[in-house]
Amino acid sequence: MGHREDLLEGAKRCLLEKGFLRTTARDIVRESGTNLASIGYHYGSKDALLVQAYVSLVEATGDRFDPGRAGREAMATDPGSLERFQEVWTHIVEAVGESRAIWMLSFELIIQGDRMPEVRRMLVEAEEQGRSGLLPLFNGVPEEEQGKDAVDTEGRFYQTLLQGLMVQWLFNPETATNATQLTEGLRRVIEGTKRG
Is 160 left (phi over 0), alpha (psi -120 to 50) or beta? Predict the structure, then answer.
């Protein structure tokens, strides 16, 4: 690997061990076997490197949401169905449990966002990519073919559910909502709107 990749891998390890605020440039250099100047050269700043490392960690976790990308058998249910909804959330819940350190890091960034405006700006830019990345899991349409309207509505809906589930699973995994409960809740909401 070159310095750029070494820095990214070192930054990921630092984030998981120390979090965003406690990771220093020297920590990253020590972990990556590079030098301080290489951070600025390749990423512009320590914060930009850490944001890229965070996004990379989240993307790797997102790959585990889809069994086909994780090297397992692809989804077994039809896109757009309640069965697919439940299957996707089952995989997401499993990944959240396996990736606790990453989700803790997410909340550190949410809570500290006002104190780090540049970091917040970079993460806000990555938010839309996260929304569009979730949609294919549910609707079966490749990410590059998702329309802006779908990303801004369905993508936001799934992202909101994901963030709520993360809070529950981080706070108390024993009582957190599971995929079956979430699907039954949606089914009842849909039935209620048909009656109204």
Answer: alpha
